[in-house]
Amino acid sequence: MKVLAGGGALIATSKLPLLAEDKPEVFPERGGYERLALCYSTVEIGLEKPFSVLHISDTHLTAAYPGENEKKQTLNKRRTQTFGGRQEEALRDSLAWAKQHVDYVLHTGDLIDWQSEANFDLVRKYFGEGMTGSLGNHEFTSDMWLSEPKEEQTEKYKDYSREKLQSVYPFDISLNSQVVNGVNFVTLDDVYGYVTKQQVKRFREEVKKGMPIVLCMHVPFYTDNIWRAAHRFWNEKGPLSSGVLPKVTGDFKRQLEDPVTSEFMEYLKKEPLLKCILAGHEHISVEDRFSPTCREYVTGSNFLFHGREVIFI
Ligand SMILES: [Fe+2]
After folding, report:
1. How much distance in Å is there from the Cα of 49 to the middle of ligand 1?
2. For 161-191, what is each residue's pLDDT tens digit?
3. How much is the pTM?
4. Yes or no: is domain 32-312 CATH 3.30.750.180?
5. Pairing with 267, which of 33, 149, 206, 247 sits 20 to 30 Å away (CA)?
6. How far is the CA of 137 from the centre of ligand 1 (A)?
């Protein structure tokens, strides 16, 4: 198992101290590892030293201490029901499996469902100093529907908790680079679909390093097929009736309409160093070709014990 110095986007599995549940309540005879629903993808780069990564996303931890305010208690009750109450077990199983099977772990956001001291402590506990990945839209959520600031889904809204999140998550939450065996893992915050000019500038600096790049973030950079799949899962009822692209809304619409983001995505499609995109947010596993050199993999939700081993060769 490889050890990385300092913070970064990936967790070196050698740093993970965790064990799976001995006798979990669910599937007790199968053992913790066999409760995972993993899919596999291979990224062919031509590496001297192949390695693999467990990609997980969307754990949606819902913890609150008894002393935290009433809104946190309400969210704890309601959202634990929503996500099944086994999120921490799922995370523990994933990390324990990773320790025995892969070199690094990457988490692409919505590790917590909303902000609480208990959730922040879980982030610290499970990822410690070696962690990296990206934030999700839920990391920036204070009290969900219980408080609705007008600036939601803007940089201004993020400003309310940016500093706090940066102190809890041990990687640069805006954009982070970590080189693993000659591959540059660049993680970034695109939690409302868009990226900023500053992030684009920093990404272009990373390209100058001349290494193959794996781009990791919460919200996918939508292709038509990823959009269609996500739309079918979340919004459509009944069997498929048409091959026409469903109406583009939300994050995909923002990506097409925001000039900085759409220009960045067009540029990425022509960047030969970009080898792979890893994202989450949609709670389904779906993949598509993003560019001639890059496939995009969206990984299903970790609260349902999903993950993806990505093999880099
Ligand atoms: Fe999300």
Report:
1. 33
2. 999 999 999 899 999 999 999 999 999 999 9
3. 0.93
4. yes
5. 247
6. 5
